[in-house]
Inverse folding.
């Protein structure tokens, strides 16, 4: 059984595939964590929750302030991070949560706790899965009393590592625009490590993710990991206490957020997903990828491949019009694109980056006949049509801002903060604003045959205050904003289930499990420099299925706008094949040879796309090593595999060590084919090898210089 309750021991045992999580109810009524790791076969092997053996060998009770409480509350000697910090109207700041009752149904568990004095309930919800080493947790805090309760903190979950262990390492993913998901690993010493964002974007400072290990590598060793399913401000603390306990607390950031619960009101936290593997960091990522595919992604595209995309933004930015794009559509079809996307610049009177942002009507100067002639042209060529939109933002030049300035975040007594783009954030915490945004998108989707929405968001949130901008009179706008944002996505998905939504927020600043529920494609980063993108792809794979990795144009013009690098077309194409390929060229003025090469790579990608987008992902050699990088994709039946080898910083004609593959069946024999590039005269020839030989002996691959790359198809004989 996935959820068991052993009454005589007051023991809750949760198993999720090979993961086991156990806690008990002590004689005093406290839920206390016992174990989190690989499944145990005998419950007698579990540690004891409230018994401690002192150094002299005698047995005693653990002090209350040292118990591994399943959900920590402020007060009663709890000095590390508390999950719940209520303030009651009698002035008491804290509570003591004890067991009240529980409910078990199939793979789900609800444990209800209550405060000993006040009528405050906390329901701990758990969900296990038969085919994933992941457990989901969230908490529901309810005020059953007669006065108001202020929640100074309301986290989703508290979990613990094994006590008395100082050999833990913490991996996190800090980043910024164009440098997201920087894989960072550090020793956990006594003290607190805080992973948080405060500007409304989940990946703007550090992703809502952690991994803990004791010496794991990319594909070997124990890793405990977790992700918070929340798109806004988050806070994950990893604390090694002076009692030699390592405790993790995860939830919404309590920065500028202290909701008030009136009598009968409740607050539901975001879901926290945590798991375990002994297959290293790559094993953890593959668990997350399968979990997303099976339980999170929109069903319309979770088990299918994504179309090859053409987007002219990288070539033209705002300088678009009907004639230019109609002529481009023929070229996009010629290279094999399946989706044609019109990016920024199609609306209002947009001539600069933010002019009239918020007025989502077609620009009559650029598109005198509306979008219909272009869409008809695209559809007649057999391609889907996509449209860029940034509905959460508004420019002060827009009619919307002039008509409804009260819909914008800001303090009435202070000037509105302007970032360099000059845009403001609409207050989605107001239901009327959320309804307006859905109505705008709904009308576009009804009027035009739009099968792809690129949803962008390019402004940090600030001045999220009370001056008419917070619907409850408290500072809950941070929370209500994203609840309403999810609601808009849900309504779109329900009404238009086959419209692909791309989640873009200044690139990858919202690459998060919560939006993966609604978005079948995610902009990995605005940074399409291929050498940077190889590193970004590694970090992205820690939290997102690689098939989602999008962007405006993997194959785009050089020099690259980020670093000024001039990578060969082959290298850019191979990098783009790592996810969902996109082209951003001015094809009208490209040399015929380049157009032919792009078409060649698009055709080549379509031959391997199913393996890349529906198979298992392995990092054979991480790009952070600085010399070369190897990524591998293996079909679920292990019959086919694709191997990408990239040079990064190769000097002195250095030879690579043999590339030892992963994920294949040891006892099968595979044919190995070098998929030659468009500018290479011949294919390399390899003899057939067993999966065991490929794993232990490997392939001899030679690269010449930094920008050389090779692609291999490995198929069962």
């Amino acid at each position: 059984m996935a959820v068991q309750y052993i009454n005589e021991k007051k023991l809750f045992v949760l198993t999720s595939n090979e993961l086991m999580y156990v806690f008990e109810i002590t004689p005093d009524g406290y839920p206390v964590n016992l174990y989190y790791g690989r499944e145990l076969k005998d419950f007698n092997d579990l540690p004891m929750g409230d018994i401690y053996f002192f150094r002299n060998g005698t047995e005693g009770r653990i002090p209350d302030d040292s118990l591994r409480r399943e959900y920590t509350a402020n007060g009663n000697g709890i000095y590390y991070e508390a999950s719940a910090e209520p303030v009651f109207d009698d002035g008491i700041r804290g509570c003591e949560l004890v067991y009240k009752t529980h409910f078990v149904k199939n793979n789900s568990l609800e444990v209800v706790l209550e405060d000993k004095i006040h009528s405050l309930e906390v329901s701990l919800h758990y969900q296990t899965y038969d085919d994933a080493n992941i457990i989901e947790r969230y908490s529901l805090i309810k005020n059953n009393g007669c006065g108001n309760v202020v929640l100074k903190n309301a986290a989703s979950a508290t979990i613990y590592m094994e006590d008395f262990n100082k050999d833990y390492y913490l991996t996190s993913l800090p980043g910024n625009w164009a440098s997201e998901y920087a894989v960072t690993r550090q020793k956990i010493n006594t003290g607190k490590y805080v992973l948080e964002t405060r500007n409304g974007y989940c990946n703007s400072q550090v992703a809502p993710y952690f991994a803990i290990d004791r010496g794991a590598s990319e594909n070997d060793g124990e890793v405990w990991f977790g992700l918070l399913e929340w798109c806004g401000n988050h806070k994950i603390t990893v604390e090694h206490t002076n009692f030699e306990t390592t405790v993790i607390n995860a939830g919404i950031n309590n920065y500028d957020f202290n909701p008030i619960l009136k009598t009968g009101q409740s607050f539901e936290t975001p879901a926290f997903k945590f798991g375990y593997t002994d297959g290293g960091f790559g094993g953890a990522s593959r668990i997350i990828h399968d979990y997303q595919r099976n339980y999170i992604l929109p069903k319309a595209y979770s088990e299918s491949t994504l179309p090859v995309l053409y987007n002219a933004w990288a070539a033209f930015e705002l300088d678009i019009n009907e004639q230019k794009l109609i002529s481009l559509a023929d070229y996009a079809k010629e290279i094999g694109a399946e989706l044609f996307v019109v990016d920024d610049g199609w609306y209002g009177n947009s001539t600069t980056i933010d002019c009239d942002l918020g007025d989502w009507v077609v620009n009559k100067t650029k598109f005198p006949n509306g979008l219909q002639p272009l869409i008809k042209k695209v559809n007649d060529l057999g391609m889907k049509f996509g449209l860029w939109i940034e509905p959460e933002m508004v420019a002060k030049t827009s009619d919307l801002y002039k008509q409804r300035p009260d819909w914008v975040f800001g303090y009435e007594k202070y000037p509105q903060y302007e970032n360099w783009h000059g845009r403001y954030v609409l207050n989605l915490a107001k239901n009327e604003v959320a309804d307006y945004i859905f109505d705008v998108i709904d009308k576009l989707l009804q009027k035009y045959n739009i099968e792809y929405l690129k949803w962008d968001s390019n402004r940090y949130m600030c001045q999220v205050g009370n001056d008419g901008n917070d619907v409850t009179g408290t500072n809950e706008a941070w929370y209500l904003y994203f609840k309403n944002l999810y609601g808009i996505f849900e309504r779109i998905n329900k009404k238009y289930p086959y419209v692909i939504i791309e989640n873009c927020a200044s690139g990858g600043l919202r690459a998060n499990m919560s939006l993966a529920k609604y978005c079948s494609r995610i902009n990995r980063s605005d940074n399409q420099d291929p050498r940077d993108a190889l590193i970004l792809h590694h970090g992205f794979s820690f939290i997102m299925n690689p098939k989602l990795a999008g962007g405006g144009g993997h194959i785009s013009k050089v020099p690259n706008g980020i670093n000024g690098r001039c990578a060969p077309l082959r290298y850019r194409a191979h990098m783009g094949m790592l996810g969902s390929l996109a082209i951003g060229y001015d094809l009208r003025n490209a040399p015929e040879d380049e157009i032919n090469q792009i078409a060649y790579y698009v055709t080549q990608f379509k031959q391997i796309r199913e393996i890349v987008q529906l198979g298992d992902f392995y990092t054979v050699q991480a790009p952070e090593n600085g010399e070369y990088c190897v990524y591998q994709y293996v079909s679920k039946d292990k019959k086919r595999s694709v191997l990408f080898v990239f040079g990064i910083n190769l000097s002195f004609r250095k030879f690579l060590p043999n590339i030892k593959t992963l994920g294949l069946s040891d006892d099968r024999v595979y044919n190995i084919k070098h998929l030659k590039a468009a500018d290479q005269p011949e294919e390399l020839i390899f003899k057939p090898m067993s999966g065991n030989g490929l794993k232990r002996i490997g392939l001899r691959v030679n690269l010449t210089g930094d920008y050389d790359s090779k692609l291999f198809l490995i198929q069962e004989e």
